[in-house]
Amino acid sequence: MAVICFSSHPIVGPTEALGQGVRKVLMIPREGYSADLDQAIKGEVGVMTMLLKKAGLEADIATTSGRPILGPTQKIEKVLILSDVNVDNYVGVIMPCMAVGMFPGPPVSPEAVVVVKKALTDGKPVAAAANSSIILAEAGVLKGKKYAFAEDPLKTSQMWKRRDPRFEGAIYSGPGVVQDGKIITSGACPMIERSYGLPNNTVELTQKFIAAIGPK
């Protein structure tokens, strides 16, 4: 089994996060084990982490439980507990598509909602790939904002059997990468590309997130 180990350094303090040391971003993926997590760990978390590292940023992974994230051959061992995370220590938050399942899906993590609201209140960028925009909708931060999604979640389709009322008041803007202020969203991830043929925009989403963070 391949192991993806992310930074095991102690969580840096606010001063370091703001430019006097290694700057960190917080990444929120999905809990648990499933067969599709191999692709998500390699094609999303791995790609995002590589691009962040090239930009001089480190990623801390956090979930509600803090337990390792497992696929059949891939796993992430170093996982923080979201309720223990201090958002002040990070320059932004990025959420792979694997952060949440399609509607109605599993419940959205209340801890993730708290983190997203805090980051945006503090003026930090928050990026959400594909289905993880559901976390933004749950947090109520998409009201009046443009966002991307594979298809309009307020309409039923082959992909969406039920409309998702959490997106009421938000402005659906297609399946590409969309930025509205500090919120950056995309409509397709590796899984959606494989299942529905939409272009995977993990790289573009991460690049826009890095640009929104800006230089030291």
Number of distinct helices: 6
Radius of gyration: 16 Å
Number of strands: 12
- Which CATH class applies here? Alpha Beta
Provide a concise account of the structure shown.
By secondary structure, the chain is an alpha/beta fold. It has helices at residues 14-20, 37-54, 110-121, 133-139, 190-196, 202-213; strands spanning 2-4, 23-27, 57-63, 69-70, 74-76, 80-81, 93-95, 126-129, 146-147, 171-172, 177-180, 183-186. The chain contains six helices and twelve strands.
Question: Could you explain how this protein is built, in words?
Answer:
The chain has a single domain, classed as Class I glutamine amidotransferase (GATase) domain (Rossmann fold). Strands 6-3-2-7-8-12-11 form a seven-stranded mixed sheet, with helices on both faces. It is built from six helices and twelve strands. Mean pLDDT is 85; it is low at 1-19. Helix content is 29%, strand content 19%. Strand 11 and strand 12 (183-186) form a beta hairpin. Helix 2 packs parallel to helix 6 and helix 3 (110-121) packs across helix 4. The chain has 216 residues and is an alpha/beta fold. The protein has helices spanning 14-20, 37-54, 110-121, 133-139, 190-196, 202-213; strands spanning 2-4, 23-27, 57-63, 69-70, 74-76, 80-81, 93-95, 126-129, 146-147, 171-172, 177-180, 183-186.
